[in-house]
Design a protein that fits this description.
This protein is α+β, with helices and mostly antiparallel strands and about 280 residues long. About 45% of the residues lie in helices and about 20% in strands. Strands 1-2-9-4-7-10 form a six-stranded antiparallel sheet, covered by helices on one side. A four-stranded antiparallel sheet has the order 3-8-5-6, with no helix packed on it. Strand 5 and strand 6 form a beta hairpin.
Length: about 280
């Protein structure tokens, strides 16, 4: 096991200091290779903030009594007085970095860099820059050269900025992927709405989980996939009722319903009128 840590004024006691916006109190790293288990349990939490970066392996955290396994490329944020319980295992080859900090504007600073009040675990990606900043903070605390406390704050700001940039970059990539997948789905449904469509088969054929697809499609369009298909069928049925002389059975078949009675029930449920009543009202 490798440990390297440092503490402001060489004190391990956590503290609250509101004399400046952001103050680094301690920083360190653990790398587990042979030690079987390294647990931490603070039932009353601490009075400062703690940010933990999982640089390699896995870490086991407990929130509200439930275990959450956090993998490399994620960070965990603890706020003052929050219960802290987590464990590292040698078998997981865990490498973590941590920093404790306080100040009179911490909450707003965290919000500024995308860490909302309820944020606990979030994806940050892995970066050699993260390691460099943590290691430099440790060194500054150990050497205590002139103006080192200001430099520590600047390094922590730099870390928060890098995290924010990384998260925004990942979000754009994810958003771009979601947009393409949803637009492809809309194009597919628009072309084949009159055929029998299996949402599960569509999602699986496009390498998406069914729940993920339905959730993101609804966010993107305001409808579930089946609601969207239904709206296409009803809208096209309305158009056919208004502009053609096709009978109800023919229109039912055109928009994807083999049973005209079932189509009539669906149409009336959506529009408040049966297809024949709808056509009669339009023509009068």
């Amino acid at each position: 096991m490798y440990i390297n840590s440092a503490y402001l004024h060489n004190s391990r006691i956590d503290f609250k200091d509101k004399s400046k916006p952001l103050i680094v109190g301690s920083c360190g790293t653990y790398r587990l290779y042979t030690r079987p288990r390294l647990p931490t349990y603070r039932p009353r939490g601490r009075i400062d903030y703690q940010l933990i970066y999982i640089a390699a392996g896995l870490a086991h955290f407990y929130f509200d009594g439930k275990e959450e396994i956090v993998s490399a490329g994620h960070m965990v944020l603890y706020r003052p007085k929050e219960v802290q319980r987590y464990e590292y295992y040698g078998i997981d080859n865990t490498e973590v970095y941590w920093v404790h900090f306080t100040g009179n504007n911490v909450k707003n600073i965290l919000r500024q860099y995308g860490m909302e009040d309820k944020t606990k675990v979030f994806y940050s990606g892995t970066s050699l820059e993260y390691r460099r900043i943590f290691q430099e903070m440790i060194q500054k605390l150990q050497m205590c050269k002139e103006h080192y406390q200001e430099l520590l704050s600047m390094l922590l700001y730099q870390l928060l900025i890098l995290i924010h940039r990384k998260r925004n970059s990942e979000k754009k990539i994810r958003d771009g992927f979601v947009t393409k997948e949803m637009e492809d789905a809309i194009s597919y449904f628009s072309e084949y709405y009159q055929k029998e469509i299996s949402i599960e088969a569509y999602a699986i054929s496009h390498h998406m989980s069914v729940s993920w697809f339905i959730q993101n499609f609804k966010k993107y369009t305001g409808f579930t996939p089946m609601q969207y298909v239904l709206s296409l069928r009803i809208t096209n049925a309305e158009n056919l009722l208004e502009t053609t002389e096709y009978n109800i059975a023919e229109i039912s078949n055109i928009v994807g319903y083999e049973n005209p009675l079932y189509f009539s029930r669906i149409f009336k449920k959506q529009k408040g009128l049966s297809p024949s009543e709808y056509r009669k009202r339009i023509k009068n």
